[in-house]
Amino acid sequence: MSGKPRLTYLNGRGRMEPIRWLLAAAGVEFEEVYLETKEQYEKLIKDGFLLFQQVPLVEIDGMKLVQTRAIMSYIAGKYNLYGKDLKERALIDMYVEGISDLMQMILMFPFSPPDAKEKNLESIKERATNRYFPVFEKVLKQHGQDFLVGNKFSWADVQLMEAILAVEEKVPGVLSGFPQLQVFKTKMSNMPTIKKFLQPGSPRKPPPDALYVETVLKVFKK
């Protein structure tokens, strides 16, 4: 096996996408293994690869890591994206947790029943514009710096950039009332590692479609 981290998940965004984002932002190349059948998933459990019988699974530095949060904390720490001290780390954690709450709504959206889609889309828009984006608009405006914490690129910036693009896919023009976030998005888009990740042919996954939803249900169906 090469020294590259090895990611095991489905061929779609889901809970692995923020991990892909973070590795890509750190300039780290990785390999991927895609689950397509329930049997593959059950074999991982049987072989003891999945501590809590859940993916994502990331094999890195001789470890088999599960739990998205733990995986991302490790990557952020390893690649110097986790602040310079405990206080900065606490701020990064706080921002990441908030963004994760918003992303959870987006993660579940493709699995909404057809008659609930419009209502759930409205909820995403409402939460983004009234609860989450105003926080980051205010943070950036108050300290007048390019990045959320310590004027240094961190995990929180990567997570926010992913969330902005994910919400924009569903609600075009959502940043119209957030000038600081517009500037932030432009700056992030031009960072070499992120710019590369946003190009066609990168490991970034497209928005989930019907086939992805079908595969998720097939692999994880009890």
TrEMBL record:
CDD domains for this protein: GST_C_Alpha
This enzyme's EC code(s): 2.5.1.18
Residue ranges occupied by any GST N-terminal domain in the UniProt entry: 3-83
Domain of life: Eukaryota
Bilayer-spanning residue ranges: none
PROSITE patterns, alphabetized: GST_CTER, GST_NTER
Keywords: Transferase
Enzyme class, first EC level, given as a word: transferase
Gene3D superfamilies linked to this entry: 1.20.1050.10, Glutaredoxin
Pfam families to which the protein is assigned, alphabetical: GST_C_3, GST_N
UniProt KW Transferase keyword: yes
Residue ranges of every copy of the GST C-terminal domain listed in the record: 85-209
GO MF annotation, one: glutathione transferase activity
InterPro entries, sorted: Glutathione-S-Trfase_C-like, Glutathione-S-Trfase_C_sf, Glutathione_S-Trfase, Glutathione_S-Trfase_N, GST_alpha, GST_C, GST_superfamily, Thioredoxin-like_sf
UniProt GO BP: glutathione metabolic process
SUPFAM superfamilies, alphabetized: GST C-terminal domain-like, Thioredoxin-like
Family membership: Belongs to the GST superfamily. Alpha family.
Protein's name in the database: glutathione transferase
Organism: Cardinalis cardinalis
UniProt gene name: Gsta3_1
